[in-house]
Amino acid sequence: MSTTLLRTIQPNQFSLLATALFRRRTGNFSVRCCGSQTTTTHEAKQPSQSRVAPKNHRSNKLDEILKDYEAVIGIETHVQLSTLTKAFCSCPNNYGSYPNTSICPVCMGLPGALPVLNSKVVEFGVRLGLALNCDLSLKSKFDRKQYFYPDLPKGYQISQFDIPIASGGYVDLDIPLEFGGGHRRFGITRVHMEEDAGKLLHSDTGDYSQVDLNRAGVPLLEIVSEPDMRSGIEAAEYACEMQRIVRYLGVGNGNMQEGSLRCDVNISIRPIGQAEFGTKVEIKNLNAFSAISRAIDYEISRQALLYNQGQADQIVTETRLWEEGAQKSVTMRKKEGLADYRYFPEPDLPEVILTQEYVDGIRASLPELPEAKRRRYKAMGLGMQDVLFLANDVSVAEYFDAVIGKGAEVKSVANWIMSDIAAYLKNEKLSINDIKLTPQELAELIAAIKDGTISGKIGKEILFELLAKGGTVKGMIKAKDLVQITDPAEIEKMVIKVVSENPKQLEQYRSGKTKLQGYFAGQVMKMSKGKANPGLLNKILLEKLNA
Amino acid sequence: MASRALLAVISASPNRCFISSSWIKIQSSSSSSSLSLHLQRHSRKIQLIGRSYSSETKSSEFQPPDVSSLAETARISLTPAEVEECETKIRRVIDWFGQLQQVDVNSVEPSIRAEMEGGNLREDAPETFENSESIRASIPSFEEAYLKVPKILNKE
Ligand SMILES: [Zn+2]
Question: What is the whole-number distance in angstroms between the Cα of residue A87 and the centre of ligand 1?
Answer without folding.
Answer: 9
